[in-house]
């Protein structure tokens, strides 16, 4: 694909190319807030408009979602799984237009847009299997004639706050699981990618209506920070799952904690790849370069730092700098290009400021950055992937900049020193070591090794599969989404003890004779 017939794509997905309403309970759409435009960073043109949800609209949506939850939780989990199975099939049908819209509205490559929809299909498949499990444990009781076990019940209404960079996959990681668990979901997507969210809500609604799923189980509110605040403060929201920056997550966490609600946070990363003298350079280069420039450096798992052994530093950097020379930047729908635009002009400014700051702090530029101009770059959002040699303690290196800037640094001696640098940031999402040395790899994966939620050997920091739990430690927020047992956060756990005797023995052997 090199061009997109956006009118056709929008109509295939039921999105208007003029004003769309920004709040939905499934059957009903409403909105009484301001109108915003959705611009594509690909060529700067306006794709459509959305009338935002107001707090009043939000309150209506929560009311319907709560009613919907009360009905939906009575469905058996396999019956709920059947609906999610059909959603996965619908996503298979819409994969191309949805992938194209993701690519056009967000700016990632068409391949990555398709990949994101594939990630949605995969999580639906995973959730279908899960819908026949959702199991608890049976636990040995200390009292005779007693049976103790745990079960998981539906939790309530789940709020899902997602970011522009994975505008559809992160919604599905949360909702596919939450739905089989028996919850209703209210999605607050990024205002930077509103049309893809409307498309997803339409696809879900097509399937939900055909199955008579109660209204409100799939709800959406596109709104500003006020809506985010309302959702975080709202006692009716049992779980707030938020993906985005550390400051955003901190304010959500504080509001949710204040009302003793549950939150699931997936916040910033500052992901490093360690390259040891025993690394296989054939795989280091594509791994490091894709990690750093893929999605124009706008993944929370993007490779931000390379930590390279001083004995191979010059050799590795020469190959990587050469590889940067091969990178083609341009329209992400053209499959010859490796790197598309960043999301908007604010993002371009953050990129430029970060480069300036790194230089001020003493950074040495190895590959120059800059904003591209001229034919094909009219949107002003195309930037050159840059490489800067730094020291780990620089303030700018300690912070996540959502742009294709790669910081490189040396380590000497043992891999312990590299691990110390890798862990020496406040974030703890993803990490990688490139080595064929078993001892180094195992040390990296040990309890004294990487402190991140994701630690890889001989693959890059980005591109996790849905089957594993996804998330990170420290200021990344500690949440886990997607695979493994991440489903448990969407349910409430209950411990049940049943006495089938004629006696009433007390636990801990306490005597209480009447
Ligand atoms: C994100 O950037 O918020 O592991 C999610 C990855 C993707 C998901 C990234 N599967 O890079």
UniProtKB/TrEMBL annotation:
Protein EC: 1.2.1.3
Gene3D superfamilies per record: Aldehyde Dehydrogenase, Chain A, domain 1, Aldehyde Dehydrogenase, Chain A, domain 2
Residues annotated as domain Aldehyde dehydrogenase: 34-495
Name assigned to this protein: aldehyde dehydrogenase (NAD(+))
Keyword Oxidoreductase: yes
UniProt keyword annotations, A-Z: NAD, Oxidoreductase
Family: Belongs to the aldehyde dehydrogenase family.
UniProt superkingdom: Bacteria
UniProt subunit comment: Homotetramer.
Active site: residue positions: 266
